[in-house]
Design goal:
The protein has 150 residues and is an all-alpha fold. 63% of the residues lie in helices and 0% in strands.
Amino acid sequence: MSSGDDPAIVQPECPGASFAAPTRMPWLSNSSPCQTDPVNATGYIGAAISIIAGCLGLIWPRQVSRTIGLQIPGKLGVSEVRATYGGLFIGAGVAVVSIANRDAALVLGTAWAGAFVARAISLLIDGSRAKENIAGLAIEGAMAILLCLA
């Protein structure tokens, strides 16, 4: 069965677009599937915080790793911190600002929510109740809410 035969996929006609954008769950949006909702101030704030956090990880990987309780074994470890805590955060924040719609903010917010859930599970399973871990949980939860409400 091709996607054209699947009744769950709606192929809206978008004026001015060279393609029909597939929408699997049109009932989740009260606007046209061709129209995107612009990101609001909370989305830009969340994106900016993500970019700033990324800049810190990119510029000061050793200090960031110490703050979050990681030991960097060598040059490869420094590179990993720069890439993960730097580049990934910068790229995700810039994507929200560049795309400038709620869906982009929702993707980044969901990633922060995933970190929040994983840390909460770690608190329960590993029993790590250090103040840095609790602070991380609070920051991740706040970022998830901020971006998911954008």
